[in-house]
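Q: How do we represent a protein-ligand complex in a form that can be generated token by token?
A: Start from the inputs.
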Amino acid sequence: MYKLIDGKKLAADMRAQLKADVAEFKKEIGLAVVLAGDNPASQVYVKNKIKACEEVGIKSYAYYLPAEATQGELDELLKGLADNSDIHGILVQLPLPAHLNSERALKLIPVEKDVDGFSADNIGKLCMNEECLVACTPHGIMKMLESEKIQIKGKNAVVVGRSNIVGKPVALLLLNADATVTVCHSKTQNLKECCLNADILVAAVGKAKFITADMVKEGAVVVDVGMNRDENGKLCGDVDFENVKEKCSYITPVPGGVGPMTITMLMYNTYLAAVRSLN
Ligand code: NAP
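Then emit the structure tokens for the protein with NAP bound:
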């Protein structure tokens, strides 16, 4: 019998704890959110992040740049935020409009304020297993595994997907936790064989119901990162949940799994950045 890993509940519990920790912190904690342009999905994400800040008591500073803002304007804004001691975390909502350079923007965020954990400096530190700010979705996945006391050490972990924001950092985290890690991608020749070897299988592909029951080992822990629409327009993951679940020891649902953890980990990272700023 499988067990669901309830990301919604874990996220709610973590936010309640964070609210108490933030209230006890010596000074007001600040998160700057920078949105350039009018991408509707980005607007929704930013709104949700600001709402989460309100919920846990973090002060949000929202900066809305017009779609035609120049790189110079974005640079100036980020340099000012980098120097502002009231701001503990900075995030630039991606994707930026095409004429703005996101790599350059990420480089202007000091590593200790990069609460999205997307910068090359933070990924490099993660790779070296040094203290860093870990990208929110991968960080949330590790918290979910931890919450169920799932053993990682010595296990075979397979990550399907190698994006800089999910696949690669989650693979590094699992490796740092002493799993034997395989990373699969679109050029992988023996995907099914690799997946069947997984004690822990993380799907971060972006294709509805891509991981089918014949790819999953009996008793595996399956983490579904995907956020897709099925043929009826219903939200679904990368895993064919209904057919896969019975083979699993643990599985994350979509919705209610990894999704709710992501913004919670952004709040957690901002709190962590504030705590570390005292040292
Ligand atoms: P992405 O940048 O599009 O990366 C997808 C990865 O899947 C790539 O590495 C790609 O390989 C690989 N892939 C594609 N087709 C494949 C195939 N046939 N076989 C094996 N691998 C294949 O996506 P992402 O940003 O990592 O996001 C992945 C999913 O997670 C999406 O559904 C996204 O919406 C969701 N997501 C959810 C959250 C959350 O909070 N829950 C956060 C972020 C993302 P190549 O590298 O070879 O192209």
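The radius of gyration is 19 Å. The longest strand covers residues 30-36.
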